Automatic annotation (TrEMBL):
Residues 14-105, 170-432 form the Amine oxidase domain. SUPFAM superfamilies: FAD-linked reductases, C-terminal domain, FAD/NAD(P)-binding domain. Belongs to the flavin monoamine oxidase family. The keyword Protein biosynthesis does not apply. Gene3D superfamilies: 3.90.660.10, FAD/NAD(P)-binding domain (3.50.50.60). Its cofactor is FAD. One of its GO terms (biological process) is polyamine catabolic process. FAD binds at S15, E35, A36, V215. Pathway: Amine and polyamine degradation; spermine degradation. This is Amine oxidase domain-containing protein. GO terms for molecular function: flavin adenine dinucleotide binding; polyamine oxidase activity. It holds the Pfam family Amino_oxidase.
Length: 449
């Protein structure tokens, strides 16, 4: 048996929820949300760890204090989400070498500006290439020393990559706030959902939200869509909004029948997926400096990205004795493939390099696996500078009754929670427009006949 409704939304992350909310507010209540996992939130995800809840996915509200107000910051204020101002510009003054010495600030600053200069040079060269100019002036210098490698990693892997200027900063401001709330970043999602889904005791009990429904097949035609889930359920609708990540679209989790057109699959394949991993470590006591300007610190190693970027959680949760180290891409994939014991051993080696042999063993470790999660396949999209306008348009454009949404469809804010949130609104509005046109078309054709 199958259920037919007006719109199916695949995925209950930020974009899926915000799209559903806009539809419901516009009278489209005949909708179903199919979510593969056993919870809403997607890449907003908290987990109990060391007596607190920590954020495995999005952790910061990025872009605050600018000329426009970040809608996610507004949601956070409305729900009194607890946040801490976060400033990692100090990290460059806390660079440790492998013998535990802090790199003198003069040297650190010099390496930093050299890295920034070479990043700018790289951008200019790319731009020149893009415009077909042959005026490539000087090749950017290649980072070689452990300090240069560490700074290069921070600039390109930790902070946002290539594309400048970053619209998030220019539109919403350059301040960033760390979410430090036991209810989790996901509180914002529950607040959004509450407005249109039935809840009881803070839980969503609306039967239109269906968890543990992994969409595997999507038939589409002029008459609508038929979706089949892994457990054999069938859902039919006039339209579908697909909010799965670009990593999932690149994988074979969902088969499209007929296959998606070439322009669409090309846009999907071209998009880079970043893997970004926050490893949490809990200690019996603190052994790292905790005063002002110490929240973030860097380990300089000859291998780029090897346990480079560290954060202590004492500002957010005093007395929590938790450290977080961020890995990306190749290092993330490497660590995902090994056991947590092996990862713990590596991390402890790094900490003993920085703080001496007496550092106590961590008593707990948490290693998220975004790359191997078949409902994610990575952390977020990254459009290189070389991605031009049409790529975005193609990523976003509907294919018949299939509408696309999610962080990766946001031209200005891809990679962020606010990008996902705004993309959901955009996609829902585009679909509402289409539904209106369809209706008018029907009226006209019935008048004609
Ligand atoms: P998702 O949240 O991925 O939602 C898609 C949903 O679809 C998921 O729930 C998934 O389970 C479901 N799904 C997938 N396949 C299927 C299927 N076949 N059938 C049914 N359902 C399916 N952003 C920030 O602004 N600040 C940060 O500090 C930040 N840090 C980040 C750190 C990490 C480690 C990660 C992973 C992301 C981070 N982001 C950050 C990015 C931010 O989390 C995302 O941009 C945003 O949450 C994406 O929302 P979405 O709705 O586009 O996708």
């Amino acid at each position: 048996s199958s259920t037919r409704c007006s719109v199916i939304i695949v995925g209950a992350g930020v974009s899926g929820i915000s799209a559903a909310k806009v539809l419901a507010e516009n009278g489209v209540n005949d909708l179903v949300i199919l979510e593969a996992s056993d919870r809403i939130g997607g890449r907003i995800r908290k987990e109990d760890f060391g007596g607190l809840s920590v954020e495995l996915g999005a952790g910061w509200i990025v872009g605050v204090g600018g000329k426009e107000s970040n809608p996610v910051w507004e949601l956070a204020n409305k729900s009194s989400l607890r946040t801490c101002f976060s400033d990692y510009s100090n990290a460059r003054y806390n660079i440790y070498d492998q013998s535990g010495k802090i790199i003198p600030s003069g040297l650190a600053a010099a390496s930093y500006s050299k890295a920034v200069d070479s990043a700018i040079q790289r951008l200019r060269n790319q731009e020149a290439k893009l415009r077909g100019l042959s005026t490539i002036t000087e090749p950017p210098s290649i980072p070689k020393t452990p300090i240069e490698l560490a700074i290069d990693f921070i600039l390109h892997d930790f902070e946002m990559p290539e594309a400048e200027p970053i619209s998030t900063y220019t539109d919403f401001g350059e301040r960033e706030f760390l979410v430090a709330d036991e209810r989790g970043y996901e509180l914002l999602l529950y607040k959004l959902a509450e407005d249109f889904l039935l809840t009881s005791d803070g839980k969503i009990v609306d039967s239109r939200l269906k968890l543990n429904k992994v969409v595997r097949e999507l038939h589409h035609s002029r008459n609508g869509v038929i979706l089949t889930t892994e457990d054999g359920s069938i859902f039919e609708a006039n339209y579908v909004i697909l909010s799965v990540s670009v990593g999932v679209l690149q994988s074979d989790l969902i088969s499209f029948r007929p296959p998606l057109p070439k322009w669409k699959t090309e846009a999907i394949t071209k998009c880079d997926v970043i893997v970004y991993t926050k490893i949490f470590l809990k200690f019996p006591y603190k052994f790292w400096p905790c005063g002002p300007g110490t929240e973030f610190f860097i380990y300089a190693h000859e291998r780029r990205g090897y346990y480079t970027f560290w954060q202590h959680m004492e500002n957010a949760y005093p007395g929590s004795n938790i450290l977080v180290v961020t890995l990306t891409n190749g290092e993330s994939k490497r660590v995902e493939a090994q056991t947590d014991e092996e990862t713990l051993k590596e991390a402890m080696g790094v900490l003993r390099d920085m703080f001496g042999p007496d550092v106590p063993d961590a008593i707990e470790i948490l290693v998220p696996r975004w790359w191997n999660n078949r409902f994610q396949r990575g952390s977020y999209s990254n459009y290189s500078l070389l991605a031009n306008q049409p790529d975005f348009a193609d990523m976003k454009a509907p294919v018949g009754p299939i509408f696309f949404t999610g962080e990766h469809t946001s031209e200005k804010y891809s990679g962020y929670v606010h990008g996902a949130y705004l993309s959901g609104i955009d996609t829902a509005n585009a679909l509402l427009e289409e539904m209106k046109n369809e209706k008018e078309g029907d009226k006209e054709s019935s008048l004609e006949s």
